[in-house]
Specification:
Largest sheet: 5 strands, antiparallel
Number of strands: 9
Shape: globular
Radius of gyration: 20 Å
Number of helices: 12
Distance between the termini: 32 Å
Strand content: 5-15%
Length: 329
């Protein structure tokens, strides 16, 4: 109730106190979003409770950075950093995932546009206060897999064995010159804005956790989506399109792409298990089989043979019974 009062005061300050509102489905974070309606205008209210470690300062920082380079991050119309409120431009409801359910024929077009924009983002200067996507972060993230997925299944502690395999691979990946990595560059966070100019046709929603890291990471996030199937054919086409446009060394890039995609998929499996166990959100378990499938594709790369063998020997597939076991923890 106290927070509702604070929201009303914030909206009143910006002249939106009488607006109608509808809740917008949010993702795994504790941030809440509402679409506000006043006459023919709409805005989005972000409610990011600072007591739940959801500060809006990074979101504001990267919004300003992205907009300064002419990307379609939402304009900020009002902010209250202490209470965690933002009034944002409404980029609309046409995120890639929902739009392609009704217009699957646009998939190639809009994904190619997302690749073009990703390249543009990677060609900009990394914002000054961006932290590195370094060895420490890569290790911390992949341990989520052991700490939540393997632990829930009562698999003997395998963290050391996993890191013995992955650490040398991470060292190879970190030799690449870093770019800005948004980290959640996938279909539900990208809005199709076809009426805008070329560099603004893809709206951006979720980038507050950006780091300076390998350019392959966001490509993997887009093409090996945890929430939406992307065909092998389209993946290959767009990966080669990316390589053609950027002129990266193909062999080295595909190696790093496979390593980082595997790291990301292991992390996501761990996060989804944690969401079920710790946060009482068992629906995320239903997404694990797709992530597992993406991981199996990563493991086909020759550089990941040792990791592939480790997983075959030690890690249960996310079958119905496996997921039920996690759900019962």
């Amino acid at each position: 109730m106290i927070r509702n009062k604070e929201i009303k005061q914030f909206l009143k300050l910006h002249g939106w106190q009488n607006a109608k509102s509808e809740e917008i489905t949010s993702d795994a974070s504790n941030r809440k979003y509402s679409r506000l309606f006043k006459e023919k205008n709409t805005l989005v209210l972000m409610d990011s409770n600072p007591t739940e470690n959801e500060s809006i300062q990074d979101f504001i920082y990267y919004t300003n950075e992205l907009r300064s380079h002419d990307f379609s991050a939402p304009k900020i119309y009002g902010s209250d950093v202490n209470n965690g409120f933002l009034l944002l431009e409404d980029l609309g409801k046409n995120n890639f995932a929902s739009m392609l359910k009704n217009q699957p024929n646009l998939e190639n077009t809009i994904y190619r546009e997302a690749i073009n924009q990703l390249i543009e983002i990677q060609n900009t200067t990394i914002p000054t206060f961006t932290l590195p996507y370094d060895f420490k972060v890569l290790v911390k993230e992949v341990l989520l897999f052991a700490d939540w997925y393997l632990s829930a299944l009562q698999i003997p502690q395998k963290s050391k064995n996993l890191l013995d395999i992955l650490n040398p691979l991470f060292e190879k990946v970190l030799k690449q010159k870093p770019t800005l990595v948004l980290r959640d560059y996938h279909a539900e966070n990208l809005i199709w804005l076809p009426k805008r100019n070329k560099n603004k046709r893809v709206g951006l929603l979720d980038y507050q956790d950006a780091l300076a890291g390998h350019p392959a990471y966001d490509l993997a996030s887009l093409l090996k989506d945890a929430r939406r199937d992307v065909s092998f054919k389209l993946r290959d086409e767009l990966t080669h399109y990316f390589l053609k446009q950027t002129k990266f060394d193909k062999e080295l890039f595909l190696r790093d792409y496979s390593i980082l995609s595997a790291q990301r998929n292991l992390k996501i499996i761990g996060i989804f298990a944690r969401l079920s166990i710790r946060d009482n959100k068992p629906g995320y378990l239903n997404l694990i089989p797709r992530v597992w499938k993406n991981l199996q594709d990563d493991l086909l790369h020759p550089s990941l043979t040792e990791l592939s063998n480790f997983i075959k020997i030690n890690v249960p597939e996310p079958t119905v019974s496996t997921l039920q076991k996690i759900n019962s923890v």
